[in-house]
């Protein structure tokens, strides 16, 4: 049986102090669930957790537990799962810089595959039978055809994509073993396209160091923090020569996790693309950011960045057809506006937050 609508769950959110994980933490709490965050704060921000906690009222604060630790520490994680009565894990903790994965591949295999396998073993030890994994469209590599469906062959073109694909495989193999043994286990791997935007109440938001993503960089130019944005390649075979991506709002993205979790039945092994099903070029992003901010955004046309596929756009109809989920915030201006509001309210992100000093 699935968990069904309305039931309150105890969910472990790994990487809950990071960009996507903090939004998941906030929204799972808002939906009435109990959340246990585990984060080693290598790249996450303790301030994000403190802000989420601070925005909760009275008794609700007791529904958020923070544990600083590594997901790869099997026995400690199993103990945390048991002591908190966790029923489901949403696994966001990961390294997520494609470029870094090329220069330090073993860190990616260790973190994104190795530590994730230990986390899954901890779930096994503690009898946690529901698992949602943050996978990526990078597992598809450079597909011949877009939009991308879930059956598109997975052929990553960088260690980041491989490290995520390997864990998808570990999940499938474990699920099969559970089926043979009659063990109650169900999981989903959600393949994210380009996650963008921030909490519309501006309590938390996107804050990466270093920042490499297009929308934050464009907005930093609008704020006067950078001189210009460099367009990485203007000679692609796309409508205006620049790369096309499918940008999904972070709130929609994390909400999909809850809908999927509620729908899981023992034995399920799901794979869903999470995108809006429409692509925007780099130039369209910049033009929309100009309109949203009313600021000048200086552009320099540069050369291609290694490993960038020309177009990555999701066919997101499988999740809509199977469980009725689809993105609500599909207007690019609205997505960029939410990011803009966060940056305006928090020009230094979490850096000047009193809690930032403990953020590792
Ligand atoms: N871009 C620029 N200039 C910049 C930054 C980005 O032109 O300064 C372009 C990129 O070349 C790309 C597009 O903007 O065409 C989007 O780039 P991002 O770095 O924002 O995002 P990516 O598409 O490279 O990466 C995203 C996720 C990764 C994930 C990948 C899957 O951030 O975690 O999708 O391919 F692996």
In a nutshell, what does this entry contain?
The chain has helices at residues 19-30, 46-55, 74-83, 98-103, 105-126, 159-181, 214-222, 250-263, 282-293, 317-323, 332-345, and strands spanning 10-14, 34-39, 64-68, 88-91, 130-136, 186-192, 194-196, 229-232, 244-245, 247-249, 269-274, 280-281, 299-302, 311-312. With 360 residues, the chain is an alpha/beta fold. It has a single domain, classed as NAD(P)-binding Rossmann-like Domain (Rossmann fold, 3-Layer(aba) Sandwich).
> Largest sheet at a glance?
7 strands, parallel
Count every helix, treating DSSP H or I runs of 4 or more residues as helices: 11
CATH topology: Rossmann fold
What is the strand content? 15-25%
CATH class term:
Alpha Beta
Helix/strand/pairing category:
alpha/beta
H-E order: EHEHEHEHHEHEEHEEEHEEHEEHH
Q: Domains counted in the coordinates: how many?
A: 1
Using the CA coordinates, give the radius of gyration: 20 Å
C-alpha termini separation:
41 Å
Can you tell me the CATH superfamily? NAD(P)-binding Rossmann-like Domain
How would you classify the quaternary structure? single chain
The side-by-side strand order for the widest beta sheet comes to 3-2-1-4-5-6-11
The proportion of residues forming helix, as a percent range, comes to 25-40%
What is the general shape? Answer: globular
Mean pLDDT: 96
Which stretches are low in confidence, meaning pLDDT under 50 for 5 or more residues running?
Answer: none
């Amino acid at each position: 049986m699935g968990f069904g609508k309305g039931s309150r769950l105890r969910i472990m959110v790994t990487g809950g102090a990071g960009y996507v994980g903090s939004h998941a933490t906030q929204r799972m709490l808002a939906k009435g669930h109990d959340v246990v965050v585990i984060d080693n704060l290598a790249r996450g921000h303790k301030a994000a957790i403190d802000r989420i906690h601070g925005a909760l009222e009275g008794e609700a604060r007791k529904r958020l537990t923070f544990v600083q630790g590594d997901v790869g520490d099997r026995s400690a994680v199993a103990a945390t799962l048991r002591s908190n009565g966790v029923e489901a894990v949403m696994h966001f903790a990961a390294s997520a810089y494609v470029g870094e994965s090329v220069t330090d591949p073993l860190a990616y295999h260790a973190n994104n595959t190795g530590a994730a396998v230990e986390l899954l073993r901890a779930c096994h030890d503690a009898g946690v039978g529901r698992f949602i994994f943050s996978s990526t469209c990078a597992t598809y590599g450079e597909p011949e055809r877009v939009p991308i469906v879930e059956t598109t062959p997975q052929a990553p073109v960088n260690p980041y994509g491989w490290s995520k694909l390997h864990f998808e495989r570990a999940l499938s193999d474990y699920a099969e073993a559970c089926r043979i043994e009659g063990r109650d286990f169900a999981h989903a791997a959600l393949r994210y396209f380009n996650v963008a935007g921030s909490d519309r109440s501006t309590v938390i938001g996107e804050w990466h160091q270093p920042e490499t993503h297009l929308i934050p960089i464009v907005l930093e130019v609008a704020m006067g923090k950078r001189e210009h944005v460099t367009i990485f390649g203007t000679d692609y075979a796309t409508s205006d020569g620049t790369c096309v991506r499918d940008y999904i709002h972070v709130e929609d993205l994390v909400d999909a996790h809850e809908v999927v979790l509620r729908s899981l039945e023992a034995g399920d092994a799901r794979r869903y693309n999470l995108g809006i099903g429409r692509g925007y070029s780099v130039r369209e992003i910049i033009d929309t950011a100009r309109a949203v901010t009313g600021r000048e955004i200086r552009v320099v046309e540069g050369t291609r960045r290694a490993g960038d596929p020309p177009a990555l756009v999701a066919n997101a109809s499988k999740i809509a057809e199977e469980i009725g989920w689809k993105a609500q915030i599909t207007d690019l201006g609205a997505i960029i506006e939410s990011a803009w509001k966060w940056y305006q309210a928090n020009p230094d992100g979490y850096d000047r937050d009193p809690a930032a000093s403990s953020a590792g």
